[in-house]
Design brief:
Elements: H1 16-26, H2 50-56, E1 61-72, E2 75-91, E3 108-122, E4 125-138, E5 147-157, E6 160-168, E7 172-179, E8 186-192, E9 202-203, E10 225-226, H3 230-233, E11 247-253, H4 256-262, E12 269-283, E13 286-297, E14 300-307, E15 314-319, E16 324-333, H5 344-350
Parallel strand pairs: 10-11
Antiparallel strand pairs: 1-2, 1-16, 2-3, 3-4, 4-5, 5-6, 6-7, 7-8, 9-11, 11-12, 12-13, 13-14, 14-15, 15-16
Length: 359
Amino acid sequence: MANLSMTCEGRRTGTFASFLFGAALAHAGTMAAVPPATGSRDTSAIAPSAAFLSYWKSGLAEISSYAITAERYGELRKAQGVMVFVYEEINADTRIKVESDKTPPGKRVAVLKLNNVLKFTTGIYDYSVMTSVFAGLSGPGVHRPFQPQKVSFTSQEWCGSVFHQLLPGPKGLKSEIHSYFEAEGDSIAILPYPVLLPGPAATSAPGRATLPAARFADGSRTPFYYEDELPILVRELDGPFLREGESIRVNLVPSLWERRKRHVPLAFTEAILTKAGAENLTGKDGSRAACKWTLGLGGFAITYHVEAVAPRKLLAWENTRGEKGALIASIRNGYWEHNHNSDAALRKKLGLAFGVGPE
């Protein structure tokens, strides 16, 4: 891929570009609310490019470590995090990883999995948090590029553990919670899908047309997004998601970790995602060409800084609550094969301090 740092534009492959721009323009005059569709939908147009597969279907994971400032109980904490990106296949019915030939080809969904790990302490005790996003690339249930087929969240600390999972279904998101705490306990609920947002959904840079709300290619239901999938979307791994200077107004599922911290009901919220454009990001290793993104929702804002050239890693982020993260190191590795004491040098390469015993 060419150096794109001056324009902050990713390589166009017909995936995001055709979905957001072509499908939206095709329905420019149809702004009424649309109920969820029923029946099957042709997904043959949703497929990753050959260049994407050559990098991600290589048998290696991308592992990036981060120095983080995280908020808990009204105070900012020093933390570390790891983002693991890896290609997998899951079963379309169970949403569980395929590890044998028991799942036929027609039931397999190719995904890019993100395991987003966060570790920190609150006073005397530890927190371990992981959010997993299974971003669909092709197969049953994939109606837009990188559409999550499952989002799961776990939190463990000295009091107990919490599990929260979201599964998209025909009429809404199936939200399943299992919690140690009495006020939450075990619950399963359906969060109905949102209807199309009224009015224009996107604004363009000067001289460019305003885009209406994006829909699926058959015009049925407005797509929605998850805050937890943004570390994938803003990387524009297989073509541009937005053009430089554009903003899009979306229905958003807030971060499951944020919902957990705030103890608020799960609900879609309106948000504005903006591809602000090219920047030079200064860090401990000097200045790097980057692309800046912002997400605004309900008085809260997050800024993402993404590497301007392939593989477009997430370099840093910060939000209006004082939380932030900065890339420490990144490697490509089949980490599941490196589980011996002699492999501890790889942790040092990533600069990870937690879980390291005495020398």
